[in-house]
Design goal:
60s Ribosomal Protein L30, Chain: A; CofE-like fold; three-stranded antiparallel sheet; 7 helices; globular
Length: 265
């Protein structure tokens, strides 16, 4: 079966409290898709964070002394640095424009995944509370608190309505230590493998594979990210059919390299 990725049409601007399962199911007819067994939804982290109320107004953040110190080294807003500290278990590297951390979720990323882009419009309840001196650009978005759980909840709701086994993948854009540019990467997984272990299988010349493990969830995340775009495309969800590996329960932990094996720390 060919691998087919289809952008889902009609996804609205997501606000806090929106039900993403209902929105995804509602987008299928407009996208001319009838859900089938083993289909996958790939969802941008941004809409999950918005639905879960992970927006923060920087006007309400008071930087600590440590945040002020790191802000001087990184040339970043001290309020954002304070949020980075709160969202991280360890600061690994600092340079002007970036702070590399181990996120509380366990992976290494820049600036704890905190994002300014495509955050407005603000949640309705916050719009009513805004003072005139608070600007939309003062809002930032944090990653979901538990993306695996978020993916599992969305999957459970969709499967309950559709009576169809599916997978859910929540993705974000990450940089890499050894190459330029960001790529889509999995941060929340439910119902699909994160890592596919091919060790012991035979190649075309009957050589038994010794070390090959495929980051299948990240490969799919990168493919979907191409279709989502990084700017004003407004395509935060992708339907996938023909994933080349059997679906199973998976989690983000499969993809996280241990500190002992991480040569870039």
């Amino acid at each position: 079966m060919p691998l087919t990725l289809t952008p889902l049409l009609g996804i609205p601007i997501i606000r806090q409290g929106d039900n993403l399962a209902d929105i995804l199911l509602g987008s299928l007819p407009a996208s001319q898709i009838e859900l089938q067994k083993d289909d996958i939804f790939v969802i941008a982290q941004k809409i999950v964070s918005k639905a879960e109320g992970r927006m923060v107004n920087l006007e309400r953040i008071t930087p600590s002394e440590k945040a002020l110190e790191l802000a001087g080294q990184s040339e970043k807003d001290p309020r954002i640095v304070e949020l980075i500290l709160q969202e991280s278990s360890e600061i690994l590297r600092t340079r002007p424009g970036a702070i590399i951390v181990e996120h509380n979720l366990g992976f290494v990323c820049a600036n704890a995944g905190i994002d300014h882009s495509n955050v407005s419009p603000l949640p309705e309840k916050e719009e009513k509370e805004l003072r005139e001196d608070v600007r939309p650009e003062d809002w930032v978005l944090l990653l979901p608190k538990n993306p695996d759980l978020s993916a599992a909840q969305i999957r459970q709701e969709i499967e309950a309505v559709s009576k169809t086994r599916i997978g859910i993948l929540i993705i974000d854009s990450h940089g890499r230590a050894w190459r330029n540019g960001t790529v889509g990467a999995a941060i929340g997984i439910s119902g699909i493998p994160g890592l596919v272990d091919l060790r012991g299988q035979l190649d075309l010349f009957d050589f038994r594979l010794q070390v090959t493990q495929v980051g299948a969830a990240d490969e799919l995340a990168a493919a979907a990210s191409l279709m989502m775009g990084q700017a004003a495309e407004g395509t935060p969800a992708i339907h996938v059919r023909g994933f080349p590996y059997p679906l199973r329960e998976g989690s983000l932990k499969e993809l996280l390299r241990s500190r002992e094996q991480d040569l870039f720390r």
